[in-house]
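User: I'm curious what two different proteins look like when written out as structure tokens. Can you demonstrate?

Assistant: Sure. I'll show them one after the other, since each token string lines up with its own sequence. Here's the first protein:
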Amino acid sequence: MNENGKSSVLIVDDENTNLLFLTHILKSEYTVYVAKDGRNAIEAAEEQQPDIILLDIIMPGMDGYEVIAVLKKSEKTKNIPVIFITGLDKTDDEERGLALGAADYIIKPFSSAVVKLRIKNQIKILEQGKTEKALWQANAASKAKSNFLAKMSHEIRTPMNAIIGMTELALRENEPAAIKEHILTVKQAGVNLLSIVNDILDFSKIERGNVEIIQTDYSVSSLINDVVSIIRMRAIDSQIQFVVNVDSNMPDTLFGDETRIRQVLLNILNNAVKYTEKGYVSFAVYNEFAGDNSINLVIEVMDSGRGIKQEDIGKLFDDFTQFEVEKNKGKEGVGLGLAITNNIINAMGGIIKVQSEYGIGSTFTVKIPQKYNFFNKLASIENPNEIKVLLYEQRQMYTDSIAFSLGNLGVDFTVIENDSNLYEKMKMKAGNFLFISFFLYVKNEEIITKNKGHIKIIVLTEFGEAIPDANMNILAMPAYSVSIAGILNGTSSYLPYNDSNEATVSISLPDARVLIVDDIITNLKVAKGLLQPYNAQTVLCKSGMDAIKAMQSKDFDVIFMDHKMPDMDGIETVHRIREMGSGDSYYANVPIIALTASAIAGAKEMFLENGFNDFLPKPIDTIMLNMMLEKWIPKSKQKKHTAG
């Protein structure tokens, strides 16, 4: 079908009279192409890709039989229906044509009604075939997506179990605060990545748009801190400036689904960083008041990346959509992030808009209605009138961002233009805080050292930048209202890791015996480490067969069983355990918990149907682990946990 919406017909005949007649009767309904010999017919068919070909048999040079033989061998033309037009009426000639792939015959002299009917019939068959093919392709794509996500469930969650589990164990060690901060950042990144993976893997939610929204009170400043910590680690490896502008006057405690909003922020920001090779990514958060105890939470992400072509913007939120695949080769992702983001935003009653100029950059704006039960400002300065800040930063994006935050906090500030201006302002004691980039600090260290008695020096660093003096006051970029307020108020924005044992470990199990079965040594280490605070006796097995041998002792109170194992998987192992001892009640009733990375919809039900008692997805959540132990370990073996 052509751009004008008409089907197209190629007429091949060496007689001008026939060409004129057929063109005349068909041109009102079809786009008509003509060819007067076989060679031209083949070229026209490949170039024009008509929907139907009317092909004369008797022609000088190449006859119709030779032409159709060539057409049916070519990938470009083999599927185009060919109707022979001929004055021959011999049965063997008709059979020869059909054997070569002809779809139909029209016998000369032509009847205009017959010609039109034969063509319409072939186009109807063609359209029906296209519909059936499209339906088959859609079903195949749906099945492929399901299989793909099921496989990703195990393949992604298995390494995530090691990352989150081992960071949890490392955080429990007696390490310096700086090391714990880095480890905590790794864990936060892993937890947030897992949050995204969980939704990607639940294929039914993606397909049906059935996104569950769980609303609770949450801290906006804490949410933004988590998101910034993750994104700045992505940005540090690129040649971009990442700036954050957050309105300090908006309410800090909102009522909504923090997990879903975090997912929205990470998806949009990750995309911006991924497709921005130089320039900047700007992240802004503010609010629009919408009535009593209601706001629209507004999120704006701008970048100087590749931009999006106008014809592609309408397809931006389709499932598995990726644009300019060749140009973006090497960019990770499966084309689901923005589709999921759009579904989540819609489920929360919000909207997302996109403005983009190809080759210049894009702006994504999200508005999500939120409630708040009480109003507490996101950030504030205790004595703003007593603070005067000198700001010396030559990167304009950073200067503008910090200046916005200082003004938003109600703080008086002066932007330093050059080294001599810095010297002049410091001599005049024009400020009691100096915000200065590390490069400019090193360059002007002598001047600053001579005049620093009256001023507090805050060195602006790139995240992860090595600073030789551990006693420096450091503000890692991107600096924004919350982190700046913490510095100006004299309080640290750093939150040390609190050992989670007291929060999650509610019982001690010195008399309990726990069997852990997993073919991956790292997973065994993680599980054993997470059980250590319970003081339980743990036995580790690397295979289903080893587990069956260990079970002969009949002294385990609970078993954590991996699913995907070589030789004998977890389900087969459980079946074998349940059959041990000729109906022995111990083997029939011992609690067995599926410990698995296969966390797609329906997984828990599948395990329960196959002899498991419960289900604990990887990566192991310490709160859920505690609940499992409280539920399945005999009460007689549980003692109240005491810290220390």
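Here's a second, unrelated protein for contrast:
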Amino acid sequence: MLLRRTLPATALLTCAALAHAQAPRVIAIGQVQGTGTASPLVGQTVTVEGVVTADFPQGLGGFFLQDGGDGDPASSDAVFVPMAFDANADDGEVPQVGQRYRVRGEVTELELGRQGSRLTAITADDIERLGGAASVPAPVVLAAAPADWEALEGMRVRIGAPLTVSGTDQVERFGELTTAFEGRLWQPSEVAAPGSEAFQRVLEDNARRRLTLDDGSGERDPKSIGWLGTQPVPRVGTVLEDVEGIVDERHGSHRLQLTGPLALPTAAYPLAPRVPGTLKIAAFNLENLFNGDGRGGGFPTPRGAKTPAQLQAQLAKLVATVRALDADVAALMELENDGYGPESSLAQFVAALNARGGDWRFVDAGEGPGPDTIRVGLIYRASRVTPVGKPATLTGGPFGDRSRVPLAQAFRRGQGPAFVVVANHFKSKGCSEATGADQDQGDTQGCWNALRLDSAHRLDAWLKQDPTGQGSAMKVILGDFNAYAMEDPVRWLREAGWRDAFAVAKVKQPYSYVYNGLTGRLDHALLSPALAGRLRGAAEWHLNADSADSAGYPHGDPAQPWRSSDHDPLLLGFDL
């Protein structure tokens, strides 16, 4: 019986009964793989035998074949065999997992995706199903991240050590889940100064520990993801056990092509934090709160909700978040910059906060602040604190078209001393229009780092001039600085005397943002020395950064605050 498939070079899949009269010389797959990053036999025609361990005909376009090994742990004992498959054909079969096959063809290095990834493969001329008993080779059990994934390329492995979910941003787009050995991956510039030896060690450690779990498909925006099934996307920080798959290389990294569903543990969402102190100050990036024209029209909005229903879901999540924080003053980022009237995003957000009888008010700066599409804002509880004097804004230089204009307001709680809260949102790392020193310098700080550093200098100088006119030495600058803790702008402010609230409170490994599988802080609270002495506690509510996009307001449950933004809010407690 002749079994046909559309193979490269019009290869044929034949039964054992149609085997060649003269048996070809069979070599170990390890000889094909070699011990380097590429096969030593590229361009040569070889014959190998092995058992099919995984078959991805419509996903990756082929199957993986593994033999009993060549005795050399430095060479892989498996290889990829490209094989196009027509799901509508009825004149044959797909190579079956657990069956033995003989493959004859040319050795090649497939270039798969970006960053020069190459996967050793045999472009088959003949594929012959062999008789006799066979079983899938037992997986190689890894108790830790291997020193060399290349020696396992194409092989079946089981991860015997826990894997921690480190990023979910590629799950819905490509079916990829970022994980890591030994805990989550940290943004290098969160924990070490760019360019330092410590920074380089973090880069190398991240590369060693990182492992992508893939769905055996190159499809973009897949309708279903085999390893996920009907389970919700796991949160960052979720720990996975006994993960099994085939070692593959594509898109710049080694990865596991999963051969079955993952057993995903249920991870409880954290409760809203509580911090000691009689005065509570929060900061929260709202992730583009735009309300259309404020009268139910004007959708889709330029940055936020696409429909009135999405806006209501977004508001519900944001309101639930801010209420649960129970702060006295809150600095807000990414509000639509549409004035202070009753139809503005700020006024309607405060109205939503007060829908059940609250006493929130907003600081009215008269205009702006700033000309940007988004702005910062300050809100407060009228029964707990009182604004003192007028608000102040810093314009000019980097503030306006790039960094958002800072907003400062002095407050007093009861008969206590005045303190100043400054809402900030520095320029993001995107490279549009960046030139000269503002271009990406290759140090992982992204574009506009020079402008963010200039923003820090000017902000510090401005606050030394007492812009609110209250003479208070107790100041807090907080918000989204678009810079991680060890990057130039935030590091310079600390060197200028501002105290990191989370360091003062001795919080270990704070974070507020997860990007590309890396955890860090873009959101900071920096205290003047006088206010640092009054700090009693600091916390972040990790309800957003660890959560998948699918939990957000366009798709998630509006009755729950989870993924109300892409940033985690922070909360500080003081005794004045």
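A detail about the second structure: The chain has ten helices and 29 strands.
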